[in-house]
Amino acid sequence: MNEAPVSHPGNDDLVQPFQIEASRLRGRLVKLGASLDDILTRHAYPEPVAQFLAETVTLAVALASMLKYEGVFTLQTKGDGPIRLVVADVTSVGDVRGYAQFDEEAVKAAADDIAIAPAPALLGKGHIAFTVDQGGDTDRYQGIVALYGKTLADCVQHYFRQSEQIETGLTVHAGRVDGHWRAGALMLQRLPPDPGTRLSSDHEDDWRRAMALMASTTAGELLDLRLAASDLLFRLFHEDGVRVWAPNHLRFGCRCSRERVVGMLAGLPRAEVESLRVADGSVEVVCQFCSTAYHFRDADLDRVYGTGT
Q: Distance between CA 183 and CA 54 in Å, rounded?
């Protein structure tokens, strides 16, 4: 039996905002530990699926942290490959969750291709979508772009080049440390020039230098439980004047509830719900995010459909 993940308060499950002062570059450093392990260990994912979902969750956290919103940010991929759907979402208060739908036999058959180019091997042809839902009367924002690149980070960078026209650099690593899942990501964006000005050759050199430094970040550094985010940033960018702000903390959090499931069932024909019966005769609904099972006996269904006394 695995021991609980080691906790290093202040070093883990956080987003560290930073800026490289002289270069007009802003960034985020993400370090995930127990929150990610909680997401993945609730499911019996094959290793390549767990790895891909870990990277998706980590990228979702990095992207969400660049936005100002009150609600839910969602990163979703859909394709015709072995992994049909991946969803990761992050609330504005720091609750993170995610899940994947996949064909296990197809994942096994694609093992050699996954090692070379995981994104096309696992997702096939499809798209990646970014959604910000602030609820109420606020319109949802959604950006969609075709999957393009060897890794999910490549696909995200392609989105920013094509749709947002913001130069973005990303590196992400995920893996097991002492039997528990961990992940980290470093994200840099070049701020647009002030109105009426143009980027100089010095700014171009600064961007290339920052990209080279970011590329030098190792998986060991991003996954190190003992290495504080601010220490890693200082190690990388101290010569360029890196400035950090207070980190934002994260945790696994699912928004499912029995009340939400009741509302979902009420929107389905009762005859269709019969297909959800399990061995004990109850209707079972399992949350795809956290694997919590909700059971409804006939009397419960009568109340849902307004036929009870």
A: 7
What crossing angle do the helices spanning 34-41 and 47-65 adopt, rounded to 10°?
A: 140
Which residues are bridge partners to 142 per DSSP?
131
Contact 66, 156 (CB under 8 A): no
Q: Which of 228, 252, 276 is the last residue of a domain?
A: 252
User: pLDDT (tens digit, 9 = 90+) per residue, 1-59?
Assistant: 445 444 445 689 999 999 997 778 999 999 999 999 999 999 999 999 999 999 999 99
In this structure, what is the dihedral angle of CA atoms 85, 89, 95, 101, given to the nearest 10 degrees? 0
Residues 262 and 247 in one domain: no
263 in the same domain as 246: no
278 and 233 in a common domain: no
Cβ neighbours around 20 below 10 Å, total: 23
| Token output for 119 | 């994104």
Grouping H, G, I as helix, E, B as strand and the rest as coil, residue 83 is strand
The stretches of the chain forming alpha helices (DSSP H) are 34-41, 47-65, 104-109, 111-116, 118-123, 152-159, 201-215, 219-223, 229-237, 258-266, 270-273, 298-304
Is residue 70 within 8 A of residue 92, CB to CB? The reply is: yes
Beta strand 242-244 with 283-286 is unpaired
61-98 residue pLDDT tens: 999 999 999 999 999 999 999 999 999 999 999 999 99
Provide DSSP, 263-288.
Answer: HHHHTS-HHHHGGGB-TTSSEEEE-T
* 272-275 long-range contacts, CB within 8 A, separation 24+: 273/301
Measured distance CA(235)–CA(51) in Å, rounded: 27
Q: CA-to-CA distance for 129 and 152, rounded, in angstroms? A: 12
Let me know if residue 48 belongs to a domain: yes
- Check residue 197 and give its pLDDT: 61
**154, 197: one domain:** yes
Question: What is the model's pTM?
Answer: 0.92
Of the CA atoms within 13 Å of residue 152, those in its CB half-sphere come to 31
